[in-house]
Amino acid sequence: VQLQASGGGLVRSGGSLRLSCAASGRPFGSYGVGWFRQGLGREREFVAAISGSGKTIDYPDSVKGRFTISRDSDKNTVFLQMNSLKPEDTAVYYCAADFQRLGIRRDPAEYDVWGQGTQVTVSS
Questions:
Q1: Using CA atoms, how far apart are residues 119 and 95, in angstroms rounded to an integer?
Q2: Tens-digit pLDDT profile for residues 71-95
Q3: I need a surface site. Which of 11, 46, 53, 82 has the fewest CB within 10 A?
Q4: Do residues 105 and 98 touch, judged by C-beta distance below 8 A?
């Protein structure tokens, strides 16, 4: 299975971007998918996660109310809508899937398949 993240780019502070994470080789099915980000010189940070059913969603306080994660099972794709972007949101964004167990998690070590990352740059 491979994950392909896309949708990053350069946007001004207050702008929006929509990231996509498409899976090939197997469906996401009932498994959770998460988004993470890593800024320059920083550790990988949890951004959002969604369960297989889409009914359980989690965000850290840093993005709650600005970011929305969703999934389209027919397209086998998970989205991250990012609004009201801030310069501190600048990072490489990665999607990841946990095909080992159900539910969602914040720890990147719990995810076993990762996409290649897409750069998001927010200018002030």
A1: 12
A2: 999 999 999 999 999 999 999 999 9
A3: 53
A4: yes
